[in-house]
């Protein structure tokens, strides 16, 4: 008699700290284990990109040798992961960062081929519109790679409607899977300004910090009304040196702990965004962090932010510079408004986007339960 195969999920993620890895895969690992499912995490390190150390010259034989040996080392590690992990899994979750962020898709094709040979389900998870490139760079080669991966995977999990519409023609099983967050106890906040200055906070990837330039004029006007400082929580090595020059800034290196501390001491959370095809497909991870900490939010009504932040209900929506100025002043002056909006944001996540609440459906999508 054939022995039943123990359910096992292999998660191929970029790392253990990026928002996509944490919010769309890793936070569910303990819940899967609780349900008797084996979980194996394969972080695509040394990097989804080949690292470029500072000592490496810009050109020449040494640089070429480093590139060749580096790509060979990364490729060898990925092939080892594919050949040793995939055959022992029942499901492979492959995230958008792929096995190596390059125009070559031979590693992804190998993973899918091994999975088919071993009758392993492959779920391709994508929560950024990288078929458009990144938020700062165009990557024209990525569209064909994404489409080929979606076509080869058993199922696709799309983080937003625009992503789902883009990939639906290439997948027979596509699910819309919103980004959720694992909630802890509801934070205790007084919403009082405990010092002379209002505390503003922004958190996210350094490449997205450029959106703060949209509210530069509004911050300058706010400064004439009430003193404030801004805490920016991100990877500081990648932060533009001239960001919000002239304001009272506190720069904090990102970690889950430092982000939690920063949000806990903030009075107002900021979420400005340009309105373009990239941002309209984003999944609102920043708002999830703000809402879970019960910080009152001011946001641009773009993409997922426009669904999550409803004006004067779960936050304040600002479109123009005047909107931002008015909203900043209103929240700075009213403890009652901060309490109402901060608690409403937290309640929105509890009722709609907590990982605990969304896990059963997410598990069905991953494991391939019947519709």
Provide the descriptors you would attach to this structure in a database record.
371 residues, alpha/beta, Rossmann fold, 2 domains, six-stranded parallel beta sheet, 14 helices, 12 strands
Could you characterize the architecture of this molecule?
- It is a single chain.
- The protein is of the alpha/beta class and 371 residues long.
- It contains 14 helices and twelve strands.
- It has helices spanning 19-24, 29-34, 61-85, 106-117, 142-152, 161-167, 216-223, 256-264, 277-280, 285-292, 304-308, 321-333, 335-352, 355-367, and strands spanning 8-13, 38-43, 91-95, 121-126, 155-158, 174-176, 198-203, 228-234, 249-253, 268-271, 297-299, 316-317.
- The longest helix has 25 residues, at 61-85.
- The radius of gyration is 22 Å and the shape is globular.
- The model has no long low-confidence stretch (mean pLDDT 89).
């Amino acid at each position: 008699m054939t022995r039943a195969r123990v359910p096992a999920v292999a998660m191929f993620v970029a790392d253990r700290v990026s928002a996509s890895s944490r919010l769309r895969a890793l936070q569910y690992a303990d819940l899967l284990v609780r349900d008797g499912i084996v979980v194996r995490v394969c972080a695509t390190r040394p990097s989804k990109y080949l690292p470029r150390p500072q000592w490496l010259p810009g050109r020449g034989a040494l640089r070429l040798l480093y590139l060749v040996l580096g790509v060979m080392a990364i490729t060898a590690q990925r092939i080892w992961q594919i050949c040793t992990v995939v055959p022992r899994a029942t499901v492979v979750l492959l995230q958008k960062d792929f096995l190596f962020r390059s125009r070559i898709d031979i590693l992804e094709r190998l993973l899918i081929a091994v999975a088919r040979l071993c009758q392993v389900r492959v779920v391709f998870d994508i929560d950024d519109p990288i078929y458009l490139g990144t938020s700062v760079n165009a990557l024209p080669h990525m569209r064909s790679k994404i489409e080929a991966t979606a076509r080869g995977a058993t199922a696709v999990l799309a983080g937003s409607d625009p992503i789902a519409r883009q990939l639906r023609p290439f997948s027979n099983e596509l699910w819309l899977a919103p980004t959720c967050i694992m909630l802890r106890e509801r934070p205790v906040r007084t919403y009082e300004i405990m010092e002379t200055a209002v505390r503003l906070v922004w958190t996210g990837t350094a490449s997205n910090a450029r959106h703060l330039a949209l509210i530069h004029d509004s911050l300058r006007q706010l400064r004439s009304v009430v003193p404030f400082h801004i805490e920016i929580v991100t990877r500081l090595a990648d932060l533009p040196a001239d960001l919000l020059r002239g304001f009272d800034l506190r720069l904090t290196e990102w970690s889950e702990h430092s982000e939690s501390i920063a949000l806990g001491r903030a009075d107002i959370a900021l979420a400005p965004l340009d309105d373009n095809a990239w941002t309209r497909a984003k999944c609102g991870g920043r708002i999830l962090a703000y809402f879970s900490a019960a910080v009152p939010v001011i946001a641009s009504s773009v993409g997922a932010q426009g669904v999550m932040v409803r004006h004067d209900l779960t936050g304040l929506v600002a479109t123009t510079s005047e909107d931002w100025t008015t909203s900043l002043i209103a929240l700075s002056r009213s403890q009652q408004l901060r309490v109402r909006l901060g608690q409403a944001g937290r309640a929105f996540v509890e009722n709609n986007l907590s990982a605990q609440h969304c896990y059963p459906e997410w598990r069905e999508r991953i494991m391939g339960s019947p519709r």
